[in-house]
Amino acid sequence: MKILQGAPWLLGHRSMLKPNKPVKVSLCGNDYVLWQDSTKKINCLPNACPHMGAMLSEGWCVTKPDGSSTVACPFHALEFDGTGCTVLPGSNKPTKSLIKPLELIVQGDFIWSYGGCEPKIPIPKIMNEIAAEYEFIGLTGDRSIKTDFLNLLLNMHDYNHQNGTHRQLFEIEEVQLKQFIDNGFHSHAYIAQPRTKPKLRDILKNPALVLLPKVLEAHLENYFPCLGIMHGESSLFSLKECHFYIPESAERSRVGVLMFMKAHSPLAHLLKKNLLRLIDIVIEQDADILGKLYTNTVQHIKLNNEVGMDWVRRNFDNFPMVSDQ
């Protein structure tokens, strides 16, 4: 699958990997098995066993005396090390590499990959900067969605859908785009969203709603095509809501949100789970609407505030070059 070749993809955060527990990830039409050994080294191989195609992610890990580990095929228990080599039954000698590892770039707790393609644009530095200053509070909203990657990106940069898709959750009355700064593959959007007062039943479901002001002021920072960051401020905390986007296949895309916080009050720590749940609901609503679109519909109506979507389309059509703005 050829899509945005040379873009960096944030496959996940180290917290999603339990020691010696294989995990399946998909990228650009290919499935991989990802695992972390006892030395915290992260390995990534194609997920199909080269013997009869069993999913290695359904197998288990075997820890070695030096702390490294292999992933074992669930079909015939063949073990593959991080280079793709195995030892066949009746032999004491490892084979040559039978499956090519996916090259990873691990920066602290962040797991990046160019999907085996030549890099065309750099990995954004902002995730390392956030991790150095803010407390990581969790991964949320991690979903594989039945939608092509362009439609996922359009949804995530559609500022008008807040008072439609998320109207019931946030009681948003309208969206006001205050400013959009276009720096090629990097952009900033500043929006204001007046909202009605939440109902008691909604507050009881998610107490984090009481922290939301009458007007939601949002600063959205975007790194095409892989990241979108919501910078949030309140009297209790500063929040970094980091959305990452992955093209899994031609018809499926993955989104997840890494949440970071800087507490200004001890009360902030009591709200971590509620914040994670709130964003999980947001992604659930996005996934639901994306599954109910006629994606081949010709757009005959253009709304205001679609500059973020225009930014996505331009960069998607011209990647890896940015056309004149």
TrEMBL record:
Any matching Pfam family: Rieske
Species classification: Bacteria, Bacillati, Cyanobacteriota, Cyanophyceae, Nostocales
Gene3D superfamilies linked: Rieske [2Fe-2S] iron-sulphur domain (2.102.10.10)
Protein name: (2Fe-2S)-binding protein
Keywords: 2Fe-2S, Iron, Iron-sulfur, Metal-binding, Oxidoreductase
Species: Scytonema hofmannii PCC 7110
A GO term for molecular function: 2 iron, 2 sulfur cluster binding
Hydrolase is among the record's keywords: no
Residues annotated as domain Rieske: 9-113
